[in-house]
Amino acid sequence: MWHLDKREGLPVYQQISELILSTVKSGELLPGDKLPAERKLAAQLGVNRSTVVHALEELEDMGWIVRKQGSGSFIAEGKWGVTSAARTDWKRYLEQNAFSKTEPFIEDMKQLLRNGGDQLIDGYTGELPLELIPSFEIPSLTWKQFLEEEQQDDFGYFPLRESICRMTAEEYGFSLQKETLLITSGAQQALFMILQVLLRAGDSVAIEDPSFLYALPVFQAAGIRLYGVPMDHEGIDLEQLEQTMRQHRVKMVMVNPSFQNPTGKVMGRARREKLVRLCQSYQIPIIEDDVFGQLRQIPSEQIPPLKKLDPDNVLYIGSLSKILGSTTKIGWLSAPLSVNRQIAEARKIMDFSLSIFPQVLANIALNDPNFYERLTDLKQEIKNRGTAICDILNELEGWTVKAPQGGFYVWATFSKGNLKQHEWQYFLKEGLLVAPSFLFSAYKNSIRINFSRIPKEQQSLFREKMERITEQLLANRKK
Predict the structure, then answer these.
(1) Are 228 and 259 in contact, with CB atoms under 8 Å apart?
(2) Among 22, 352, 317, which residue's Cα sits nearest to residue 182?
(3) pTM of the model
(4) Which domain holds residue 348?
(5) Average pLDDT, stretch 78-91?
(6) Domain for residue 135, yes or no?
(7) By three-state DSSP, how is residue 287 classified?
(8) Could you tell me if residue 251 is inside a domain?
(9) Does one domain contain both 158 and 262?
(10) How many CB atoms lie within 10 A of CB 206?
(11) Whole-angstrom distance, CA of residue 227 vs CA of residue 219
């Protein structure tokens, strides 16, 4: 009965599961019968005991056997005779779900956030705190007026597209084509739709290393291969990028040249021009993520969007979520008309409808006479918080940090070496939530902090927590 003809292409534990099921279907074992002990069955089948245990666990999960500690494993009663067909192993399917795989460190942070507390400092969450989001007056609108505004084409609310193009012209001195601008439900939807329409499973994409893109499951879910390219003080290294493009037949280059997430680095104009020329020579499109563009602390002429330098080869992603809050969920994609037509059509087929409500509200905000005044105030407060946090970090032994020139992230590096797994727990024990560098790269010596979420009244507490953490890290290196 217990003989296994091993077959190629199917894991051994699954073959054992099938063998056990077949003995019941054939009547050799009946419901309630006891299976041989794990060690005995492993010996009879010529496999490791752990393989047998894996098979039994799978059968138990599917409900076909019952395992009783100290007594053994038994064929389950009550199911056989109703159907002899094996149930779908949903567990095996769910294990392939890229969106379900969460880093345990992140789960621990989320639990701390749920519990809250006055002593908790949240430097992890990737959005502005509620008290900093600008407030705008909303005119009285009737339900009928909203329904009338619903009359929009597949590219989104046209008045909003006009407002975005006008804002870009005022800030950067170049014009996006409102007729081809596609409104999206946030920047990530724009990125997701690009992956779905323009790339196929197995395609290679070059990105910066470190990069927030590593933390997004959409690439793994789409089967896209990411190849990280090292950065210097100005961003992506172009020699390394060209080598990666040749070696891996890269189909796209994705960059975040202004206030890069997570490092905050800014690519200079000369580097931007060289990047554009390099990708033109290989006929490889660039995806430019410029979601922090409105939160710059430096003149716009120093950081012209890649889209301005090469309108035809760059897919430009922008967002209002970083200044109006993530619930607004307004992003946009500027791409050639033929590309955005395909993306808009695909979105319609997938039924990723875009509500008119956030679009109308975003348009009201952009046309508010006080919009730029409120934006200036916001940037000043963010700058003050960033300066304070950087000053604290620079005073601590072992930490190096560069003041950001825009956005709301600071990248702090521990110069005494990588942090071991148990050392990351120091941050959780202190209730200081930060994004560890291993989320964005193979590096394990840095942290990303959203300093906009640390107001003046919490900065002394931040100092105390960082001092205690640093003291522990330094003590470990003296042992």
Answers:
(1) no
(2) 317
(3) 0.79
(4) 141-368
(5) 52
(6) no
(7) strand
(8) yes
(9) yes
(10) 26
(11) 11
